[in-house]
Amino acid sequence: MTAATSIKSVRGIPVLIAAIFLCVTNAQAIETPAKNAYIIDMKTGTVLFDKNSDEAMPPASMSKLMTVYMVFERLKDGRLNLDSKFQVSEKAWRKGGSKMFVKVHSRVRVEDLLRGIIVQSGNDACIVVAEGISGSESAFAELMTRRAREIGLTRSTFRNSTGWPDPEHRMSARDIATLSQRIIEDFPEYYGIFSEKRFTYNKISQGNRNPLLYRESGADGLKTGHTEKSGFGLAASLKRNGRRIVLVLNGLPDIRARSSESLRLAEWAFRTFETYSLFKKGATIDLADVWLGTESVVPLVIDRDVEITLQRAARRKMTAKIVYTGPLPAPIAKGDKLARLVISAPNFPTLEIPLRAGAAVDRLGMFGRVGSAIKHLIWGQAG
After folding, report:
1. Cα angle vertex 192, ends 188, 197, to 5°?
2. Nearest-angstrom CA–CA distance, 227 and 171
3. Model confidence at 314, in pLDDT bands (50, 70, 90)?
4. What is the torsional sign of CA 350, 354, 358, 359?
5. Which of the 8 DSSP states describes residue 332?
6. Is the pLDDT of residue 14 over 90?
7. Is 39 helix (H, G, I), strand (E, B) or coil?
């Protein structure tokens, strides 16, 4: 047998259902005045835009997403329910900035506090929650930081529950996007609160500060932020035609810029990129020649669904090739890794996916091997 590297192009790509998650970045053809920006396609994990996404920045009220996440977790595992009540301390009541306007010493339902945080961005509501869960805001902030590390927020440190300015209170745009995705995926039963445009508490009605909720943008969350140090920021999720992106901006000069820039970048992301289904888990991609086996070929099967997000212009130049050294010697066990599927396209990092044996192939007995070797010597057949 003479082994040779086999490279075959793949044609007739079938339609799929799900995706392999690709943490890759496409080339950028747009700029933004935002100091920090990050856009990701949520289904495939493809990064569509990245500007200083790993810089530890003051997140302002966008860090309230972590406060909300902590409450959602406790609702889901039963430690809290929506009718649970927390008492309003004088500290919470006196807190400045955006407020829910809770009354001192009153007891407020968790459901109302969540809307006070999400819709009204209430600093007072955040402190009520923090004290109710951990006894003090500082203890809750330590718990937030610890839990953030556990869910992969590597550049997030919390010193309070509100995003109030503190030189050590920091998040990165990437972390905010990751947290946003976790909220959407882990708590679908509560995520709808983020799309509510108005909430009235204590006879005071306030509108949601997320500007994209008031545009025909496909937005259904998440949270704005602003302090003098951070500038104006927004973590937003938008869904169109089955595609969802998460967008995080920070460091914009004013409310108008936050609104217009977030919409402009979202439009660019949906217009420029498309998600393409390539292969379905379990599909046979090709047949590979087998040496000295009871079968002359073995199916090469993909072990996952593959879906990628590309710039539309790059789709026509995408290639998919199978690479392996063959013929493949028997015996072969079902599931053995035998080859690689290599997918490449302009402005897209080369993606390599393992191909596995779709069936077992036993080794021929002695007489069979002798006959196969003779055939190979005479006719050049590999079987």
Report:
1. 165
2. 14
3. confident
4. positive
5. B
6. no
7. strand
pTM of the full structure: 0.84
CA angle 85, 90, 91 (to 5 degrees): 100
Mean pLDDT of 258-264: 97
Q: Which two tokens stand for residue 302?
A: 């993909």
Render the burial of 250-280: b for 16+ CB within 10 Å, e for the rest.
bbbeeeebbbebbbebbebbbebbbbbbbbb
Active site residues: 61, 64, 121
Positions of E strands within 88-159: 107-109
Cis peptide before 58 (omega within 30 of 0): no
Tokens of 338: 């035998």
**Count of residues for the chain?**
383
pLDDT tens digit string along 279-305? 999 999 999 999 889 999 999 999 988
Quick one: which of 305, 306, 291, 285 has its CA closest to 358?
285
Q: Which domains does the chain have, with CATH numbers?
A: 4-17+280-379 (2.60.410.10), 36-274 (3.40.710.10)
Q: How buried is residue 304: exposed, middle or buried, by Cβ count under 10 Å (0-12/13-18/19+)?
A: middle
Beta-carbon contacts of 327 under 8 Å, excluding residues fewer than 6 positions away, are: 1, 3, 288, 289, 290, 291, 382
Quote the tokens at residue 68: 């909300």
Tens-digit pLDDT profile for residues 46-91: 999 999 999 999 999 999 999 999 999 999 999 999 999 999 999 9
Place of tokens 């104006």: 232
Structure tokens at 269: 């992301």
